Each structure stands twice: as C-alpha cells, then as structure tokens.
Amino acid sequence: MKLDGDKVVDQYGAVLAEYIRGEWHTKDPAVLDFVKDTEEVKVRARNEKGQLVGDDPSTPDVNEAWTTKVVKKVKGNK
Predict the structure, then answer these.
(1) Is the pTM here over 0.70, yes or no?
(2) Around Cβ 40, how many Cβ atoms within 10 Å?
(3) Side-chain half-sphere CA neighbours of 45 within 13 A
(4) What does the DSSP assignment read for 17-72?
(5) 43-64 per-position pLDDT tens digit
(6) Where along the chain do its domains lie?
(7) C-alpha to C-alpha distance for 40 and 70, rounded to whole angstroms
(8) If pLDDT is split at 50, 70 and 90, which confidence band does 74 have?
C-alpha cells in the first residue's frame, strides 16, 4: 500500500481508501491501521507541469496558492 495524495492505493493501482471531508473511508480495517499516522499539511499549490500556482486577486476570500495534502507522519530513530 502507498499513500497517493488523498487516496491509498495498492501495488496494482486499485484505490483501497479515500480521504473525504476530514476522514478516511474504506471497507478494509487493515487500511485504517495504515493511515492512522497521517496528517493534513498546507503546501503550495502546483499545476500539472509542477509549477507553482499564484493567488487570484479577483477572489479575495480564497487563496488558490495554498492547498492541503495528506501525508504520513515521520517517525524519528531513537
């Protein structure tokens, strides 16, 4: 299994779980164990080419330059 944005996919590319409105949706309890150490972080938005996206000044209440992404928490060595 691997985390691909807001989805968990297996080695064949099949979607096992999705992160929708702040919680994980899946039928497999093993997938929930895999995603229990995830968190949402704010990152700069990028387009399909990987270039940074700027904020649109015509929409003052929305900042298009930033988006959220679900990532695994990093565990340090002790």
Answers:
(1) no
(2) 12
(3) 12
(4) EEEETTEEE-S-HHHHHHHTTEEEEEEE-B-TTSPBPPP-TT-TT--TTEEEEEEE
(5) 888 888 989 888 888 988 888 8
(6) 2-72
(7) 5
(8) low
